[in-house]
Amino acid sequence: MPIKIPDLLPARATLENENIFVMTEYRALHQDIRPIRLLILNLMPTKIVTETQLLRKLSNTPLQIQVELLQTASYIGHYTDSSHLDSFYTTFNQIRNNNYDGMIITGAPVENMDFTQVNYWDELCTIMEWAKTHVHSTLHICWGAQAGLYYHYNIHKHTLPAKLFGVFEHSVLKPSSPLFRGFDDRFYAPHSRYTEVREAEVRAVKDLEVLATSSEAGVFAVKSTDSRNFFFFGHAEYDEDTLGLEYSRDKKKGLNIAIPKNYYPDNDIAQSPIVRWRSTGQLLFTNWLNYYVYQTTPYDLNTIQSETKNPLPTK
Description:
Layout: E1 3-5, H1 11-17, E2 22-24, H2 25-28, E3 36-41, H3 47-57, E4 65-70, H4 82-88, E5 89-90, H5 92-95, E6 100-105, H6 121-134, E7 135-141, H7 143-153, E8 158-172, E9 186-196, H8 199-203, E10 208-214, E11 218-224, E12 229-232, H9 242-252, H10 278-294
Parallel strand pairs: 1-2, 1-4, 3-4, 3-6, 4-5, 6-7, 7-12
Antiparallel strand pairs: 8-9, 8-10, 10-11, 11-12
């Protein structure tokens, strides 16, 4: 898939080395089609890593996608060079008058805090409210999914006894859903979080549908019945070494962290991890883009506001 990104974005070289088709702005200008406009609100401190992971997963359809990167203005992290943020990121005030086919809201390492204690919570609420009338379909990931369910449906997160950390088996509850087209009945995905939402509380909301769960990791995928919002509680976008790097980081901090489950062969950290979620991540993002964005988004993005009165078909 030709992902349209800025010519100098660091992810470009990484993805091209992996034989992923990346289209620069110059080349995209010479194609006479309307690209899918996708906004990524990146709340992670390691922004370049997260950009690359997401762009890799968005790279498996014949669609042309114009990707824009968004950061919060109310809080600027210190892990990414300011020149990178200045060159490739915008803030909400710069894009608030735009409309988008899709948006991704990433996770963030703030889940042990109450939502209202997060520095950028008010700004995030403003963006999620704005998305109701300016974005066709929004995908929330991990803490972003917890934040979305809390803001839109008042579903609270709950602290786990220990960090849920590793690669877990999941079951597809609705095989007929286009989101799981091409999936096996059981699939694997990484999780890395201290909190959860409870399935019973999600099911109590008539406008929500639970699509996939895990006996160990709990709820994995939820969507709104109008298909305008999706919530993934795992990290199907993770690289092979992401959990290992998190484990090493937490050990160096002196945290009481267990070896990620079902990740290293025989729990031996000297061995290379077993990747069992690569196809899961590819299919999840591809299916969301194809069936819930491309196939249903209006050609004229200015008509998105009318969708709040005329919701998408339930699938």
